[in-house]
Write a structure and sequence with these properties.
The chain is mainly alpha-helical and about 160 residues long. The chain is built from 5 helices and no strands. Helix content is about 75%, strand content about 0%. Keywords: Membrane, Transmembrane, Transmembrane helix.
Length: about 160
């Protein structure tokens, strides 16, 4: 069951990296940093939790593998956007990869936490999809390519009316 879960997480991570690649032209550096940090840390955490039961007596090996996975995912995601984002992704991958095997080693039953973190990963990736959609809309507005008949209001701006 853990192997199947790791394959699922691997495809989820690769899919999110490819999604970032497809939308790279519309992402600002901060968007890329957020995506690299989220994907790097969560892939390190989730895959590290899954790796730890395979190496029950060897916490160092499971930690090294989790850190390398998190660093690779964070770097691959961030490098698509900018060097700053890749450094941020690498650092987040290190943090996530170091925490998860230690946490998994302390738990008598790690499966509930593994499933919970899988759900967190999917939830955060769905938030990143919304981030990309928002970035795409901002990119279209900046380029003057907004084809809708009504102007799009940015909810982050203050609520001022045109009557003033």
């Amino acid at each position: 069951m853990l192997l199947l879960n790791m394959v699922f997480l691997g495809f989820l991570t690769l899919g999110s990296i490819l999604y970032t690649y497809r939308n790279r032209s519309e992402l600002a550096c901060m968007d890329g940093m957020m995506m690299a940090m989220a994907i790097g840390s969560l892939s390190g955490i989730c895959l590290g939790l899954n790796l730890q039961p395979y190496f029950p007596g060897n916490l160092a090996l499971s930690t090294i593998l989790a850190v390398l996975i998190g660093m690779a995912a964070g770097f691959a995601t961030g490098r698509i956007v900018s060097l700053t984002a890749s450094i941020d992704g690498v650092m987040a991958g290190i943090m996530g990869g170091m925490m998860s095997p230690m946490l998994g080693a302390m738990l008598a039953q790690p499966m509930p936490l593994i499933w919970f973190m899988d759900l967190v990963y999917v939830f955060v990736l769905s938030l990143l999809v919304f981030l990309v959609k928002e970035a795409r809309q901002a990119f279209l507005e900046e380029s003057g390519l907004n084809t809708s008949s009504q102007p799009v209001r940015d909810s982050r701006l203050s609520d001022t009316t045109d009557d003033e």
